[in-house]
Design goal:
Layout (H helix, E strand, L loop, with lengths): L1 H18 E7 L5 H8 L8 E5 L2 E7 H14 L5 E25 L7 E25 L4 E19 L2 E24 L2 E13 L6 E5 L2 E6 L4 E15 L3 E19 L2
Antiparallel strand pairs: 1-3, 2-3, 4-5, 4-12, 6-7, 7-8, 8-9, 8-10, 11-12
């Protein structure tokens, strides 16, 4: 009885396996690493998709292969030229209000008293916008940096026939913050893999402290995408015998990205 079950299972399996075909497709514009992850979820149960040497290898039914070919035709296109714009907005506002008394008192006969008062309320606002742009290929990475070049002492000792020769000079290292951006497109939508990097000098010690993060955001081509921001509020109160003052400040910062296609 057990043999009959095994034989029946094999008979049912062979037709399904026989219906599968093997097809090799040569890629023209994209790489295997870009295509295989997109096609894999579309392969029917029991089928497979892999790749090597710029070729996609599909094992599936003829119907599924036709479906995968249609999807592949939309994926294996020439990479698009893109421009990434970064906007850094800074908004600052401060308000100071207070009052003060001043004057003098003369003692003695016929003394005079003079006291003056002054109240004030001042508001100041300011804004700053810095923007940068970089051109990249679809799937490629670009780096945008904001910072400065810092001089660092450099000493070199060269041993020769006449002894050691010491030369001293300055080299410059870029210190600041920046973004590694990798755009990936799907129709009119873009997914951005972003790796911010922050560097800070160590003073006289030389070198720098480096911090790196990684995140992903998505949006539409041609639209601004907010990457992040910060708000800082500050309040200071001052009190004296004849005066007082209140100071309030607000600092807002935000970073925006926009990806556009160059046609």
């Amino acid at each position: 009885m057990k043999r009959w079950f095994i034989l029946l299972f094999l008979l049912l399996s062979f037709p399904a396996a026989a219906q599968q075909e093997l097809e090799i497709i040569q890629l023209r514009n994209r790489t295997v690493d870009q295509i295989v992850p997109v096609l894999s979820p579309l392969v029917e149960p029991g089928g497979s998709v892999s790749g090597m040497n710029d070729q996609i290898i599909i094992r599936a039914s003829r119907r599924n292969i036709t479906q995968l070919r249609e999807v592949l035709a939309t994926l294996d296109t020439a990479p698009r030229n893109l421009v990434i714009r970064v906007s850094n907005d800074i908004s600052q506002e401060s308000e100071r209000e207070g009052a003060a008394l001043s004057g003098r008192i003369e003692l003695g006969q016929g003394g005079n008293t003079r006291i003056r008062g002054r109240a004030y309320d001042t508001v100041s606002t300011g804004s700053q916008n810095t923007s940068q742009r970089i051109q990249v290929m679809e799937g490629g990475s670009g780096y945008i940096m904001v910072g400065r070049s810092v001089p660092l002492p450099f000493r070199q000792v060269v041993l020769g026939q006449n002894g050691a020769v010491v030369s001293e000079s300055l080299i410059y290292r870029d210190i600041g913050s920046g973004l590694y951006v990798t755009p990936r497109l799907a129709g009119d939508r873009v997914t951005l893999e972003i790796s911010p990097q922050f560097e800070q000098e160590r003073g006289r010690q030389g070198g720098a402290d480096v911090q790196r993060l990684s995140t992903m955001v998505s949006g539409k081509l041609g639209e601004w995408i907010e990457l992040g921001g910060s708000n800082q509020d500050e309040s200071v109160r001052e009190r004296g015998y004849t005066s007082y003052a209140n100071t309030r400040g607000r600092d807002s910062r935000s970073i925006w990205l926009k990806v556009e296609e160059i046609k």
